[in-house]
What we know:
The protein has helices spanning 13-44, 47-74, 77-101, 106-137, 143-193, 209-221, 224-240, 246-253, 258-281, 288-308, 312-340, 346-375, 377-398, 400-403, 407-412. It is mostly helical. Helix 10 (288-308) runs antiparallel to helix 13 (377-398). It is globular, with a radius of gyration of 20 Å.
Amino acid sequence: MSDENAYAVLEIPDYRRLLISRVMVTVAVQVQSIAVGWQIYAITNNPLFLGFAGLAEAIPAIGVALYAGHVADVVDRKKIVLCSVGALVLSLALLWGCTVVLPQDWSLVTCLFLVIAVSGIARGFYVPAIFGTVSDIVPRHLMGNAAAWNSTVWQASAVMGPILGGLLYGWVQAANTYMFSTILLACAFVSFSLIKTKSVINPNRHDSVLENIKEGLQFVFSNQVILGAMALDLFAVLFGGAVALMPIFAKDVFHCGPQVLGVLRAAPSVGSVITAAVLTHHPITHNSGRVFMLAAAGFGLCIIGFGLSTNLYLSLFLLAISGALDGISVWVRSTIFQLATPNEMKGRVSAVNSMFIGSSNEIGEFESGTAAKLMGLVPSVVFGGLMTLLVVAITSIRAPKLLNLHIKDLYKETE
């Protein structure tokens, strides 16, 4: 793909609407995450509860994922997206209401956990539906271009969201921060409703739910490239993510407030935005698998450096580099999934992917919080980085097809 057609996918009006809608959802969720994390740690002063917060969202999301993938392949995906975003609007409104009504004690923490669980169910349906919606809008030959723009826009949103969340929490406190996210999600709902697309329904839609789910699982577990990419990212995020511990670093290591927490959370996305912008013009079509593996290994090294650093600016630099390397992994993985998965199975494959990767973020938060409680803050982060390096080594041996992958070959398979 050359510079002259790097913006080709943006010429599709419905794809532009889709990007705008996803920006609003991502920013709203990131703002919510900052506020919830700071609020829970401020009340409990216990890193373990930051891990429990991630688990409270992950378990419901995983619980509905396979069924949600089936639904995304047999129902109009736009309708699923609208229902999911509508549920997220209600969840954020409940967070706002709980924060206004309840005292800053364990009753509020309990309410926060319950609402997070509801939002996890909504996210479980949103992820496979939005993944398949891209295929309903974008022609196959532009999938790599769409993957790059998806990553660019998502990462830019992930920069804005934490910074905005930290600033809002510092300026107007938690309740008004949740109100802002509620309004932004409502705007996203309206924007999604303007997209003119209709899903290509799975021709096997009359099969039983269990048969459809089984077919999706068999497809994933029989494809070494897809399974290897999912597994590598699962364990890299599970062990190498230190997101849940950011409130502790901000408060206890750097002795700062929620504003710095927002900057720490946004730093990886700054690197990812730069990477994604480069990949829109220079996609990795050759030696894609090896680049994917090297990027994951570099991510692990950056996490180790971050855990050992006591300098705020060095830590921000390492987080930005980790985000740049993660951006490479996201692009390669997203392009593989879009090109290697038949359209009628994208809901189910995305659901399995969300179980592997999407929920691994929250389970990784639980792992990080638990490890920090048992091992201490710095040892837990260094341990996670070392485990990421080990996972990369194992994957390179166990998934040679992924290691030797050239994405250009995936395009040729359907030409």
